[in-house]
Amino acid sequence: MKTIEVVAAMIQVEDMILVVQRKEDEKAYKSLKWEFPGGKVEEGERPEDAVIREVKEELQLDINPVASIGRVVYEYPDSTVDLTLFHCALIDGLPILKEHNDLSWTDKSLLYTFDWSAADRELLQLLDWLD
Fold first, then answer.
1. 90: domain CATH number?
2. DSSP H or E stretch at residue 88
């Protein structure tokens, strides 16, 4: 099975963290699931550059990846995802939905209330952010 390198941004402003909801999909395992914004790393691209590009494309936000804070490899039914989460500072912009169904600025203590995609859930559990 093919492994896809993926990056995600934990964008934090004060005590609030930005999370996004995927659009409805025929594949139930990802339809309307919540995740951190991000996407695939292109060939020859550094993960830090990929997370900046993906967030700009998806949400029209300018970010600065400050540090890598966690990584998981998760096997979905049709692919394996190698996901790295970056703690990112918001430089400029207000999020504009282009690729997602919804978005939410939420307190870290409320992350457990979202129906997360499986890879993001594993990442949150690894970081002890979910009970």
1. 3.90.79.10
2. strand 80-92
